[in-house]
Amino acid sequence: MSGLRQKPTPGWLPFLPAAWLVVFFLVPFAIMLTVSVAHRVQGGFYEPGFEFDSYMRFFSVFFGRILLTSVLISVGAAVICVLLAFPFTLGLARMNKRGQTLVLVILLSVLSLSEVIIGFSLSTLLSKTAGIGNLFAALGVTEESRAYTPSLFALMAGMCYLALPYSVLVLYPPVSRLDPELGEAARMMGASPFQAFRTITVPMLRKPMMGALILVFVFTLGIYLLPQVLGQPQHWTLSVHITDQAIFQSNLPFAAAMAVFLLLVSLAMVGLSLLLGRDKGGGA
Amino acid sequence: MMKRREFIASASALALGTLAAPTIARAQGTSLKVGTYGGYFEESFKKHIYPDFTAATGIEVDSIAEPTGEAWLVQLQQAARAGQAPADVSMMAQVARIRGERAGLWAELDRGAMTNVDNLPEHFVHAYEDGRFYGTGAVAWYIALVTNTDVYPEAPESWAALWDPANENSLGLLALASNSFLLEITATTHFGGTDILATEEGVLEVMNKLAEVKPNVRLWYRDEGQFQQALETGEIPMGQYYHDVTGLAAADGKPVRSTFPKEGAVLDSGSWVVSKASDALEASQVFIDYMSQPEIQSKLSRFVGTAPTIPRDMTDLTDEEFAAVSSDLPPILPRYELYVDKADWVNQKWSEIVTG
């Protein structure tokens, strides 16, 4: 009995989140799986059934291309975000406590903005009539104002705006705990600042960087509004097509099948990157 | 702000509404839940139509904002399975209405108790294949060729303007086959009518013709607010849009105009239907009957900006009032069955050829 009393948390506590997960994650997921094999009634809804027609429809060059686009856009956003967030976080960690708090609060406040607001703000900023095109024209950089949206650039800007705070928040704790003496020791042994950065700082932060990459990748894979607002049709991701099928075509089995597939692909990508990260970590 | 057929803003509110769908205690059937497209439509009905209805019949209206047709249809269907009706009477776009009919979602109504339904032309009186009557045309609206008057001082005369190389990167078009009716527009403009859409080869031929507009399209929009704002600022100075709201924006002083091209504008409509899960069938019939009266149809044209679903000579609309909401030019009529019977095929080809 005394052993029990020493535990800081009651033993039943973990069951609460576990039950929560079962009810609000596993059960809806099971429903989605069931719907994905249901029978689609053309011109109606769907009936219970067990068939793989919706999955078969997905295996085509057309949807293969869309899947590839989705993955590439998300990988691109993840790489850009981490490349921006890494030096940013290193700089942040060197600031005094007050400055750090201020920057973090501003960064967190970005998270309160919705995808809709960010999408429409960016499309205004990049527009021909009210955007930076006018500024460039006024400065004489371009002859006349032009629109920079919809384009891949606009879409990437939107996705990175949404995801950058997350990558900074993932990188910040390990970066702030980084022992500055390690870098100083390397410098004393004759390493240039860049050598110290490359051989000490980057290897020590490989895991958090991998974590940030995965987080941004998975996060941006589910974004469905920005590609519609900021992208051209060739940038419409699988998430956009899932929305179309579920909301506009009432084809829930096909939408569910695509969602299941998207989930499998993102799990596979996460698994693959974890595997790669571990090998490199072991070799270093 | 016009959000009639927009889904983004109202979809989340709707999802909550359905989950919560309270079995509102009705005072002896004197309250009726009526769903119309959220935003401008719902506000106009609440302001100009429902108070008079309540005064005339004693039935209180509980106004429900619904999202664009298909989403609301899915919600109604799911709710009906659980024996719930998030709305008793709903306004439904035609493709959604036909899908609901195929699924047997609409309650049968007693036409004998609804004498004003006789005012409506046959295509606005909806019945199951076995003849059971279930709904009526509520309001009609046109999708026309719209332009920004600053960028285009002269109004275009034909839908052929969409293909004009001079309009590169300056069009806003609806993103889906089943709500843009661009196949019908293309067929009428370039193939002498919509008959070519009767076969799959014909549909593909029309899609390939339509694909030629791609270099001119700046935005394929699902969200109406997105295009209307861009049209008003001149950012996207030409496109297809709703005649009624463009007229309202122009009346507000915005530099926009809506033109009935010589090939005609697309005539689309919404219909009143009743969920089979509703337990307010009688009040629903009174409501639909009331809405089919000539005076009310005229009032809808004046205050909501929709075209009447009854013949023009039954209304007391002046020429000017009629011109604001409609046209005597023969309209382009959507081939709704195409988006019901061949829905998945059309959607797939549309994604590959037109927007892909």
Q: What is this entry, summarized?
A:
The complex is a heterodimer of chains A (284) and B (356). By secondary structure, chain A is mostly helical.
What fraction of residues of chain A sit in β-strands? Answer: under 5%
Specify the CATH architecture of the largest domain in chain B.
Answer: 3-Layer(aba) Sandwich
The domain tally of chain A reads 1
- If you consult CATH, what is the topology of the largest domain in chain B? D-Maltodextrin-Binding Protein, domain 2
- How helix-rich are the residues of chain A, as a percent range? over 70%
Largest sheet of chain A: 2 strands, antiparallel
Topology order of chain B in helix (H) and strand (E) letters: HEHEHEHEEEHHHEHEHEEHHHHH
Largest interface: A-B, 33 and 38 residues
Span of the ends, CA to CA of chain B: 30 Å
Derived from helix and strand composition plus strand pairing, the structural class of chain B reads alpha/beta
Strand order of the largest sheet of chain A: 1-2
Number of strands of chain A: 2
CATH C-level name of the largest domain in chain B: Alpha Beta
CATH topology of chain A: MetI-like fold
